[in-house]
Amino acid sequence: MTFSRLLFLSLLLMMQPMAEAVTLPSWLKLPRLSKKEPLKLPQTKVLVGDFTGGTGESAKKALVDELTSSREFLLTAESPEFTLSGSSIGGRVTGKLTRADGKVVLERTYAAPGLDENLRGFSDDVIYAITGRPGLATSRLVFVSDRTGTKQIYMCDTRGREIQQITHHTYGAVSPSLSPDGTAVAYTAYRSGFPTVLVLDLGLGWERTVTDTPGTSFGAAFSPEGQRLALVMSFLGNPEIFVTDLNTNTAGCISDTVGAPSSPSWHPDGKQVIFSDDRGRGPRLFIAEVPEKGKNEARLYVWHTGYRFCTDPEFSPDGSSVAFTTQIGDETAVVVKEYPRGTVRVIQAEGAQHPSWSPNGRYLCYSQHGTLYVHDLRTSHRRAVLTQYGTISEPRWMR
């Protein structure tokens, strides 16, 4: 806008009575700005109908609770696209999902010992049948807490219930990683004074040392199929990232660094491992391509994030993004960047760290000032899962 037009506008405003509206020239009119509406996500309409049997009412209430918590559907009786019904006797549940056109999409009986367990299983199956994405009711989180005086590994559901302490090592245990089927956890323990990677079978209760090589090992992560671990080992001298086969107990090095590598995580295709490496200029993220059997060469390159401080990377379940911890100002923050290239989004600053993806890719869990949070990436809503349970760190989601 020229100075002469600005002067004309000023004179025009001065000549108008104070109580009258000013009609602006056409060349000065601005487009009308609408108020920013909150993000409204389309939701499938689901009716939770009748549940018969002695524990039918309790089953219906528990199912409504689980589906409401999932935030996947709009539970309503108005023009539902799907209807849920079933029966429950003595905690045993038979559930049915019917489409609006009358087609039965899902019908199954759940006979676990507890009613709540059966309803969580039904809830997850309903979510998967409608959306094609895994439900989270039966999913589990593992995390580290120092509530007993030493750091130990615990497990809970995604709402902070059913908490179990699963390690009891004198010198502590850290860096947990759940197997994809949730039957085992790999972690780092200090039972001999030096870090060692162990695998604990959660069903049978036995544990094994992953390697019998000299030196230290730490920071293990299960591969997508659950038969391999990526971990840091130092038996060659300098710490390097190795991939070990749990069936054959063989290992191969996939990094070549003079720095301090840590926090390996697998791409869902099982062909790449991302990790953090501090080579003296602050930790950055590197990608190693895991060689196929019979091939020895592993390609390694830097993945540029736009940040100088990057740790704790983890691929999203579909491999399209990476969540990691960075530093903004004097505090850590959780960031998500599209992979292999694309936009960057700060999810939570002010001390948030250790992000891990939910199996459906919609949520992140992370710790912030000792509290465990779950964060909805679509709505930016977050909730505290566990507070005042010692200082919580390193949460990991069952994949």
Structural class: mainly beta
Strand percentage: 35-45%
Number of helical regions: 3
Head-to-tail CA distance between termini: 57 Å
Poorly predicted runs are 1-40
The top level CATH class name of the largest domain: Mainly Beta
Question: What is the global morphology?
Answer: globular
Roughly how much helix do the residues carry, as a percent range?
10-25%
Q: Based on the coordinates given, report the CATH architecture of the largest domain.
A: 6 Propeller
Mean pLDDT: 88
Give the number of domains: 2
CATH topology of the largest domain: Neuraminidase
Record field, number of beta strands: 29
The strand line-up of the biggest sheet is 2-1-3-4-5
The CATH homologous superfamily name of the largest domain equals TolB, C-terminal domain
- What does the radius of gyration come to? 27 Å
Main β-sheet description:
5 strands, mixed
Pfam families: PD40
Signal peptide: 1-21
Keywords: Signal
Family: Belongs to the TolB family.
Notable characteristics:
Double Stranded RNA Binding Domain; four-stranded antiparallel beta sheet; 29 strands; 399 residues; Neuraminidase; disordered N terminus; 43% strand; mainly beta
